[in-house]
Design brief:
The protein has 383 residues and is α/β, with parallel strands linked by helices. The chain folds into 2 domains: 230 residues, Rossmann fold; 130 residues, Alpha-Beta Complex (DNA Methylase, Chain A, domain 2). Strands 3-2-1-4-5-7-6 form a 7-stranded mixed β-sheet, with helices on both faces. A 3-stranded mixed β-sheet has the order 10-11-12, with no helix packed on it. Strands 8-9 form a two-stranded antiparallel sheet. Helix 6 links the parallel strand 10 and strand 11. The longest helix is centred in the last third of the chain and has 16 residues. The radius of gyration is 22 Å and the shape is globular. The protein starts with 14 loop residues before the first strand and ends with a helix.
């Protein structure tokens, strides 16, 4: 008898997510990689919007559909202008929301305490979905580590009260460091994973704290000695392709050193940070990196040259984006977890200044991707 023909089913069920305070799409890259479909995004910065559309239009063309007047239907600009009824239903809400001062935080007014802040926009979208019977299954949020202690902890207390009491979600929070997830950057961020117990069977959510050499999640901080190895050299472009303008001037280099001496004398640590390519990780890249590169300078003393800034390509790789650029200084880095062929390539389509600003503001993609896998497996049960 002839064997039965096996028909491969490529129509795997997808979960739907929205991407708020989207930036250049770190959440989008990560959620898409585990089967998510983005149905709505919001980002107000015009240059970030250019980068976002350029890099995700081929992945989710419907996200950038326009109405008869030429206005985007699902790619929103100002989150304060969102029409709640026009936000498609979704399973997961993603958002790296800005941390703003909470003028009346701590007065125990719950949902009302967040008015005037950008967190309120998140809560308002979710509240609307709850009222129409379409409560999102999961909220996946990110913020700076300092949010934990902002206003003596009152801000976080307010956010947790809204999430738990007003919106009725189970909530877990954790500070995670990108250096344990395969990128050579010491970058700590606070993550929120919230789920609806009526739709998700899980009683708890276990945060991964890093990835091992096989890119499997580690859940015990005692196992962090097993994390995937990293080094600054993994993100570098070939030496002969680095523009001379990346090497800082004598004046700037002298200024960095003098400032560091002054700060040290005053009991402060800030001045500049210099790294060799075999360093396991470097400092946190910030949105101000374009100004002078002081937080991450690459040592070039072996060449008799002043230190240099990262190129925009290297800055993006430091956040875990796959960017081909001029190639890799070390061939093996081209095939690490962040650069494999199956992952989408990030294209830089803005000025160097804007690129630095965008990457400095971005999430570290491997951290988000790892959390996305765990959210899918632990909470969405769509393996």
């Amino acid at each position: 008898m002839p064997s039965k023909k096996v028909v491969k089913n490529d129509n795997k069920p997808k979960f739907r997510f929205i991407d708020l305070f989207a930036g250049i799409g770190g959440f989008h890259t990560a959620m898409h990689s585990v089967g998510g479909k983005c149905v709505f995004a919001s980002e107000w910065d015009k240059n970030a919007r250019i980068t976002y559309e350029e890099n995700y239009k081929a992945i989710e063309p419907s996200l950038f559909a326009k109405d008869k007047e030429g206005n985007y239907k699902f790619f929103n600009a100002d989150i304060n202008d969102v029409e709640l009824d026009k936000v498609p239903n979704f399973d997961v809400l993603c958002g790296g929301f800005p941390c703003q001062a909470f003028s009346i935080a701590g007065k125990r007014k719950g949902f009302e305490d967040t008015r005037g802040t950008l967190f309120f926009n998140i809560a308002e979208i979710v509240d609307h979905k709850i009222k129409i019977g379409k409560k999102p299954k999961v909220l996946f949020l990110e913020n700076v580590k300092g949010l934990k202690n902002h206003d003596h902890g009152k801000t976080l207390e307010t956010l947790l009260r809204v999430l738990k009491e007003d919106l009725q979600y189970e909530v877990r929070t954790k500070v995670l460091n990108a250096k344990y997830f395969g990128v050579p950057q010491n970058r700590e961020r606070l993550f929120f994973v919230c789920w609806d117990k009526e739709q998700c069977a899980a009683e708890d959510f276990k945060f991964p704290v890093g990835l091992d050499k096989n890119l499997k999640s580690l859940f015990d901080v005692k196992e962090l000695d097993k994390v995937v190895a990293t080094k600054v050299g993994d993100i570098l472009e070939p030496d002969d392709t680095i523009p001379e303008k990346m090497t800082i001037s004598d004046k700037l280099w002298i200024g960095h050193q003098l400032r560091k001496e002054r700060n040290r004398a005053n009991g402060k640590g800030f001045g500049y940070s210099l790294f060799k390519e075999d360093a396991v990780y470097c400092s946190t890249i910030s949105a101000r990196y374009w100004k002078d590169g002081s937080e991450i300078l690459i040592d070039q003393s072996q060449k008799g040259k002043n230190p240099r800034k990262l190129t925009p390509v290297e800055a993006g790789r430091l956040q875990g984006y796959k960017i081909v650029g001029n190639g890799w200084k070390y061939a093996e880095a081209a095939d690490n977890q962040n650069n494999k062929n199956k992952l989408p390539t990030m294209r830089i389509v803005v000025s160097d200044k804007e690129a630095y600003h965008q990457f400095g503001n971005s999430v570290a993609v491997p951290v988000i991707r790892t959390l996305a896998k765990e959210i899918k497996g632990q909470l969405l049960q769509t393996k």
